[in-house]
Amino acid sequence: MLNNETPLPVVLSIAGSDPSGGAGIQADLKTFQSLGVYGVTAITCITSQVPGNVVDIEPVSTNSLRSQLDILFNEYHISGIKTGLLYSSELIEVVLSSLEKNNIKAPLIVDPVMVSTSGTRLLNNNALTLYLKDVIPRSTLLTPNLPEAATLLEMDLDSIKSPADCANILYQKFEIPVLLN
After folding, report:
1. pTM given for the model
2. Architecture in CATH of 6-148
3. Which residues, in sequence order, are CB contacts of 53 under 8 Å at separation 6+?
4. Quick check: helix, strand or coil at residue 16?
5. Phi, psi (degrees; rounded to nearest 5) at 73
6. C-alpha closest to that of 173 among 151, 148, 143, 153
7. What confidence tens digit (pLDDT) does each residue in 91-144 have?
């Protein structure tokens, strides 16, 4: 199904690829299908992982990501966007500039993927500032896990009293709805 022939809302996942299908764009596409929307993807990284074990992360080039986003924005009416692993400030800047260049106003769900469930760091240090300054303020829903929430709040994970308290603090800080996962 191409562009205007697609009868379903089109939702874009901008994230990493997980060969096991348990995370990243593969998991997003499964979710999109279960919700009755047509999913398209822009891949930020190729990962070598299985549940509980991330072995390698290879980011795509900024040109590759820009090209993926440009063709999708030119060919589809995007009804919603979900971000996952953005990996670096360079890739984040490509996403932000592409959204602006193409005047994309679709709702943006931000899953600030920073650390895998096995504890592997998935986000370069230089990218956190861009998340805080430019990505999160643009989002319509923030979906961190507890370790990511603690990072966004610059808090020690052990100091978080409950998930509900954490979500409330995030909401107060960013004034964006929060769904902890």
Report:
1. 0.92
2. 3-Layer(aba) Sandwich (3.40)
3. 118
4. strand
5. -65, -30
6. 153
7. 999 999 999 999 999 999 999 999 777 777 788 878 999 999 999 999 999 999
